[in-house]
Amino acid sequence: MRKWSILVLSLLVVWGLTACGSGSNNASNDAAGNANTGNQSDAGGAGAGPKGNITFAFWGAQTEADAIKQVIDNFQSHNPDIKVESQWIQQDYLTKLQTMIAGGTTPDVILVSGGDLPGFASAFQELQIDPSVFSSQSLVDAMSIDGKTYAAPFIIKPKVMAINKDLFAKNNIELPSKTEPMTTEQFDEIAKKITSGEGSSKIYGSEPLWIGNWIYAFGGQYYSDDLSKSTLDSPEAIQAGEYIVSTKQAGTVPSDNEKQGQDMMNWFLSGRIGMYTDFGPWSIPQMADTEGFDWDLVPFPGNGGSKEVDGLALSKDSKNPDAAKAFITYLTQSDEAQKIIGGNKSAYGVPVLASAMDAFEQIFPDKNLNAFVYAADNQHIQEAQKRTNEINNELKAIDDQTPIGIGKQDVKVVFPQVAEKINKILQQ
Amino acid sequence: MFASKKRSTTVKRILAYLILIAGSVAFLYPFIWMIAASLRSLEEIAKSGMNVWPQNWRWDNYSKALSSFPFGRYLVNSIITTVLPIIGTVFSCSLVGYAFARMKVKGSGLLFVLVLSTMLLPGEVTMIPQFILFKKLGMLDSLYPLIVPTFFASPFYIFLFRQFYSRLPVGLEEAAIIDGSGYFKIWRTIFLPLSKPALMAVGVMVFMGSWNNFMGPLIYVNSDKWKTLTLGLAGFQGTYSTATNLLMAAAVVITLPCIVLFFTAQKAFMEGLTFSGSKES
């Protein structure tokens, strides 16, 4: 009996190890195949385009990954000589990317957001990109550091405001314009009108406002245009901070206790919030199933919010840069690819080509998705610095020390202090 | 006198049960909530709050969740990267633990301290060097990095086995030595069969660790064909939004083996609590 079980165990071990082994065999075959194709293209030169294998790393939920895989399939059908190996990284994207870069296995093509770009740019090749191809010049700016472009714009994720039309009707409030942002004063007035009730059935004007969106609504920004200096001490930034504090005091947003551990999007879904201001494209599919009330999308008040631009970067160590470049060009500049990505039901984001915008707006034709297109054009780009971690540590003071978060100190006092500390980091 | 004593034990019993029921409700509630959420629409999850009875039973969440990623393939990979590490860990750690407990040689104490001290290194520190190591071995994008290390023992389990073996009576192996058995034979024929409780305990711990391992597959595996169920679960969570109902449906299915294991291994665990090495006690 014992001998029998030992035999089964050892068989299991051997089977398991051989099963896992085929991966590395494939890998070495692939590597060999790669080298061969490399030789062929060197020697022959008969084939017109680039050939060989490239790897492509990207993040996203299942639905987003499905959209990207569809584009990859399309690219391969046009370029049968190039094989794209997709590396879909479900979570902790940056950790995995850092490990791969440190381990010398950087993928050839990497999806990167404008906010993370400065931290990773040293691992990327500089790209020559014509900004006029894209719907807005700012898209290439979002992918550039000190005038050098390190990634090609691929998708835009701006913020708009979702409104509960039923709550507007109930309070006899005129529906806001679909094309023009309301002013911050108008927003405040509407929020106060919508707020009603008490306790667990209280309805709020909006979710707790996020300084990262509202600083722009008041005409401020985090840094000077050349990113050399923090502008958190500007009157506009301070005004934005003070406004957020005032909404908490007026009770038009859920209090700190109420919002604890809760997803405010769920509150909007359950009809307890009139205006949801932090609404990104990723929230659209969630809303699509809502039957409880009528809703729509309008531009962010005061043209606030900022747009995240995600781009495709080319690794410095890429063994097959020509194929990688062809892939990047297809994904970012071909009408077909942008329509697939932009028109995906998961609302992956706003396309970067003007010609593909229709595909995006058609995902939900009865909702005003044009608000996203408007924002993609007009919103401020994400402001990115290289020393994100240190700067974020200083920015925590906003939440810790002022009533925007849990603190008691005056916004007027704290913001300039934070700006000074960030400036010290930037000067180092 | 007798009656009042009986009554007081009944009261005590009822009290004990009440406390136990309250405790188990506290632990069970999140689990029941998970099952309830797996049968709801997103909107209903948002509205329902503490309530655990779904209004519209959405059984199709399960088919949607399990068909949105290659469940079968991920399951096979999860099983491989769980079963082999259990075998590897139990084999290597009991062997090393036995050596530390029973082979008294010069410097073994120091060696043991060295082994234990490696536990002080956090995983984040060793992640990149380990990644480079497996790259040099040509084992990236395969299941090897998740399996091979377990065949080379890990300090915590070595410690566990060492403590277990140290408590077994000396008489056990003396008889075997007189019979002419070597160390390996003593380990295999006497110590291993006696250490069933420790083997079960370590086996279950390795099972939980491997079945739920997320960072390992995330770092080492790139292609779909080697991904595990934990990565499949992560796919329901976007950067900003989560398909909570589908996530919960998949989570229920993936948690099932853990629950089954708990109920089947429970008895062995109980035995493990009262184990003894010699026949007399």
Automatic annotation (TrEMBL), chain A:
Residues 1-19 form the signal peptide. It comes from Paenibacillus physcomitrellae. Keywords: Signal. The keyword Signal applies. The keyword rRNA-binding does not apply. InterPro entries: Bact_solute-bd_prot1, SBP. This is ABC transporter substrate-binding protein. SUPFAM superfamilies: Periplasmic binding protein-like II. It comes from the Bacteria. The lineage of its organism: Bacteria, Bacillati, Bacillota, Bacilli, Bacillales. It holds the Pfam family SBP_bac_1.
Automatic annotation (TrEMBL), chain B:
It is a multi-pass membrane protein. The chain crosses the membrane at residues 14-36, 74-98, 110-131, 143-161, 198-220, 240-263. Its main location: membrane. The keyword Cell membrane applies. SUPFAM superfamilies: MetI-like. It is found in: Cell membrane. The keyword Nucleus does not apply. Pfam families: BPD_transp_1. Gene3D superfamilies: MetI-like. Keywords: Cell membrane, Membrane, Transmembrane, Transmembrane helix, Transport. PROSITE patterns: ABC_TM1. Coiled coil: none annotated. InterPro entries: MetI-like, MetI-like_sf. Residues 75-265 form the ABC transmembrane type-1 domain. Belongs to the binding-protein-dependent transport system permease family. This is Sugar ABC transporter permease.
